[in-house]
What does this fold into?
Amino acid sequence: MTMSLGRVLRTGTVAVLALLWLVPTWLLVVNALVPAESYSGSPHWLPTEFGLFDNMSQAWDKANLGPAFGNSLLYSVVSALAAAVLAAGAAFATIIMPVKHRALWFWVIYSGTLLPLQVFIRPLFLSYAESSLYDTQFGLVLIYTAIAIPFAFFVMRNYALTLPKEVVEAARLDGASWWRLFWQIHVPLTRSAMIAVFVFQFVAVWNDLMFGITLTTSRNIRPVMAALADLQGNYSNVGPPVVLAGALLVSLPTLVLFFSAQRFFISSLRIHR
Amino acid sequence: MAPSVLLVAVFLLAPFVWTIHRSFFADTRTSPFSWFDNYTRFASDPALTRSIQNTLLWVVGTVVLPFVLGLAIACMTDATRFSRLARLCVVLPYALSGSAVAVVWNFMLTTDGAVNQVLTSVGLDSFAQGWLLTWPGNTLVMILANAWQATGVAVILFLVGLQSIPPETLEAGSLDGAGSWQQFRHIVLPQLRPVSIIVIGMSLVNGLKSFDLIWVLTQGGPGRATETLAVSMYNETFLELRPGAGAAIAVVLTVIVLAASWLYLRRQLDVKGE
It folds into this structure.
C-alpha cells in the first residue's frame, strides 16, 4: 500500500514538473501559430487559426534571416569541421607522437575553455578593425574555430587515450609516416568522436550572440542570433507572433541536430580515466 | 598540433594577455598607467556593486536549480512508464539557444504577457507586475528562465550516471531492508558523485559567463540593475566606452571562472595522458 502511494506521489510530481516545463514551449508554439494581424495583444492558450508559415516568412523578411541563415550555416559547418580536424591533429600529436612537454601543450590549448569569452573580445575587436577582418565572414570563421578548438581538443584527447598503442607501433615499424598514420589510422578510428565534436561545436557556433554582434555590422555578414536579437528589439512593431515564429525558425537546425545526435555525443563527453 | 596551438595562441591567449595589460591603464585615449584604479572602481561604482551581487545570485541560482531539479527529474523518470514523454518536456528547451529562450520568456514576462494574464484570470491581480522592471525580481525571473533551459542537460547527464550504477548494489540494498530514501541517500547519491561534479562545474562556469539571455531580455537594464559581470564588461567596453574598466571586469571575471574551474578540474583531470 505504501509502495503504491509513493508511486502515485512520484508520478504526480513528475506530471506537474513536466507540465510546468511545457508551458513556455507550448506558448511559443501556439502563439507563433496566431496570424500576426489577428493577434489581440494578450497571449493565446489554444491554437485557433494557422498562420505559422506566414509569420515565419514575415520574420524571414523583416529580420533579413535569409543571409543570416546562410552565414550561420557557413560559420557553424566550417568552424566545427576545422576544429574537429585540427583538434584531432593536436590530440594525435600530444598522445601518440613522442612529443616533449605534453602537459605544457595540453594546458596551452586547453586553457582556452577556462577563460570567459569576454576577456578576448575587445582586443579582437580592435585588431579586427585594423586588419580588415572586421565585418567579414572569414574573420568570424577564424574566431569561431579558435574558440571551438580547446574543448574539441579535450574530447579528442580523452578519446585518443583509449586507442590501442600497438596499432600505431606496428604501423611505424612498417615505415608509415606520421602524416599517413594520422589520416589512415587515427582519423578513421576516432571518427565517432570527431562527429560528436562537430555536432557539439556546430550548436555552440550557431547559438553565439556576442561575437556576432561585436565583430559584424552588415546584415549580410552577421549570424542568425544577431538577426534574432534585432527582431526582438522590434518586438512592439512586428508583433509577438512574428518574433516567436522567428525564434522557432532559427532554433530548428539545432533542435533537429540535437535530437538526432543526442545519445551519440553525450557518451563521448564521459571522462575516460 | 601546430595549427591548433597557433590559433589558440593568436586568437585567445594573446588577447587575454593584452586585456590584463589594458586593465591597468585609464580610460582616456592617451592611457596613462593608472595602477589599480580600474579595480578599485568595483568598490565605488554602484552599478558594479550591483553587478557583483547579481553575479552571485546567478551562480547560486544556476548551480542549485539545475542540479536539484535535474537530479530529481532524472531519478523520478528513470523507471516510470510515461517518463520518456515527461523527460522530453524538460530536455526540449536545452536545444534552444539563449537568444531564443530570451524571446520566449520576454513573451511570458512583459506587462501584457502570459504570466500576468494567468495571475489576473485567477484573481491575483495584485501579483501582476512588470517582471523585468524591478530588482531583485528581474534577476530572479531570468535565473528561472535560465534554469528552464539548463535543467535538460543536467537530466541527461544524471541519467547517464544512473544507468552506470550496477543494479546488484540496489538489490543488495533492498534485501538489507533499506527504504527508497535510504537507498537513494546511501547507494545512489555516492555513485553519482563523478556526474555531480561535472554538472556543478558546467553550471557554475556557464552561470558566470551567461550573456545572451540577459542581453536580449534587458540589455542589463533598467538602468544597469540586471547586469552581471559578463554583461557589465560588455557595457563598459562598448557602450560606455571605458575600455580600461571593461578590461578590469574581464580580468576579475576570469579569475573567478578559473578559481571555480580549478575546484572541479583538479578532481577530473589527469594531465600526463598515461
Observations:
- Chain B touches chain A through 86 residues (CB under 8 Å).
- Residues 270-274 of chain B have pLDDT under 50 and may be disordered.
- The radius of gyration of chain B is 22 Å.
- Residues 46-77 of chain B form the longest helix (32 residues).
